[in-house]
Description:
Layout: H1 11-27, H2 31-44, H3 50-62, H4 69-85, H5 88-105, H6 118-127, H7 134-148, H8 166-176, H9 183-198, H10 201-222, H11 225-228, H12 231-245, H13 254-276
Helix pairs in contact: 1-2, 2-5, 2-9, 3-4, 4-7, 6-7, 9-10, 9-13, 10-12, 10-13
Amino acid sequence: MKIKHNKKRNTAFVYEVLVKEATVAILKQDRARRDKVINIIKKHFKADSLLRKDLECYRSLYENQNLTQLTSEKIIKEVKLQKRLLDTASLFKQQTALIHDINKEATASIFNNFIPNYKTLATIDQIFSDRISPKNQVILENEIVKNMTKQFPTQEVVEPIDNIIYNTFVEKFNNKYENNLLEEQKTLLTYYIASFADNALELKVFLNEEIGRLKSKLEEAKATKEIKSDTAMMEKTNQIIDRLNGFFNKAIDDNLLLTVMKTQELVKEIYTDASHD
């Protein structure tokens, strides 16, 4: 018999819808909305909370990929053990408090946010249940293993830039950001929002690596004939690189975040345009 999935009691789902809500608020520069959602995340998902420990059980199963089958099966076994060690009564109370704060401080419509990996989160929730038959338990665990062992294709290497249209790019970005984020932009936003619960440690590591990558891509672009022969384009590229350099000792805020995201889009368009020519 299939168990009905209560998404409001699925800690990972609730966390993901909050991240989605905060992401949209940041991109729309709706500071009031952003602060409400981030305050909820900070309050309920701090490092020592049961909700955070419960979330880590889910994340161990849906954020790990490119693993071997043996490693995936070992992780599932350990995660199920850790999940059983959580105080279920206390966890239920913390979930109730979280749902209450979302309804009161934000809006219940947050629970309707589209989450691409919703099916995976529901499957994980099922394998944590003690009401599922052994047969269905094995079937669902096999689905999780399949996701964890999934291999991602190697990215194509494309030729460098033909042109930079920085000003129009900003306008294009603002018009389409909400529904067409790049994977690297989604990753950056996820780290940013999660940083309010882990003192920004993972965000700082990711930002250092990502800014370094973006600078390398822009330096490569400077060597192309199109930029070398155009003083204005060379100057604009150098200005962007200088601005990225200035971020290493700067506090992380919304402006830094949006600038890095715009540069991510710019670099993507540079190399995409080149591959089409």
